[in-house]
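Model the whole thing, not chain by chain.
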Amino acid sequence: MNEKKITPVPTDAELDILQVLWEKSPETVRYINDELNKRRIATDKEIGYTTTLKIMQLMLDKGLLTREIVERSHIYKPAVSQEVTQTQVLRGVVDTAFGGSASSLVMRALGSGATKPEDLEKIKALIQQIEDQQK
Amino acid sequence: MNEKKITPVPTDAELDILQVLWEKSPETVRYINDELNKRRIATDKEIGYTTTLKIMQLMLDKGLLTREIVERSHIYKPAVSQEVTQTQVLRGVVDTAFGGSASSLVMRALGSGATKPEDLEKIKALIQQIEDQQK
DNA sequence: AAAGTACTACGAAAGTATTCGTAAATTTAG
DNA sequence: CTAAATTTACGAATACTTTCGTAGTACTTT
C-alpha cells in the first residue's frame, strides 16, 4: 500500500532522464548520467552521479521507471510511454500558457520556430489524415 | 544596477496571472485574484489575496509586470508580450520533453488533442503561408 | 474621532525539486 | 586476498516556488 494510483507528470529533471531511456533502454545509471552530461551545454555545471541516481530512485518509487538486476547491477527502463507523457506535458502547457487552446499552441510553435519544409509536409499529411477520419 | 538583464521565463503561478492580464489590462490585484479564483476548478482551494499580491510584487521585481498608481491604488500591466512568453515556454517544453524537435511537439498536439475542424483549417492556412514565403 | 474596511509591504512558513556527501555493499585490479 | 574503484541507499542541504499571517497606511462609515 505504498503506491500512488496514478503516476505523476515527470519533473524537468525526470524528463531529461526519460528522454535518454526512451531512446535506449534498458540502461544503467552510469550510462544515463554520462549521457546527460554529454548533452548538457558546456557552460552548465556537471550533474553528479549520485544526483542522477537519486532522481532515478525517486522515479522508481513514483512508478515512472522499472528496474531489473542483471549481473548484479541495476538496469532501468521507462514505465511510462513517451506518447502518454508528452501528451500530459502538453496538456499542462496548453493550460498554463495557452489559455487551454491547443490550436494556439500549434500555431505559435509553427509560427515562431524555423520548421523545416519536410516537417511541414509531415504535418500537412497528418492534418489530412485527421480530416479524413473525422468526416 | 539592480535589474536583471533579461526577464526570466515565468513560473506557473506567474503564467496564470499573465494570462488574465493579457486578456484585460491594466487591472488591480483584487481583480486578478477574483478572476483566478473564478477560473479555478471547484475542488481546488481558494488563492488568498495576499498570495496573488505577493507573486505580482515579485513579478514586478523580475520585470514581468509594470504598475502605475491611480487613485491611490496600484494597477498592473504585463511587461512581457504573450507572443514572446509563449515562445519561451514552448522552447523549454520542446527541449525537456520533445528532444528539441518542435515538429514532433506539433504532431503530438495535433494527434492527441481533439482539434476542431476550423482550427485545422487555420493551421493549414498558416502552413501554406509559411511555405509560400520560404521558397 | 473611533471603528471598520481595503490595500500594500514584507518576513517567514510550507511545499516541491534538485543536489550532494557519506557510508555500506559489491566488484575489479594488482 | 587486499586495496582501489564502482555502485547503491539514504539523509540532509540547497534552491526555488507558493502560500499566508501580520503590521502599517489610507480611506470610509457612523
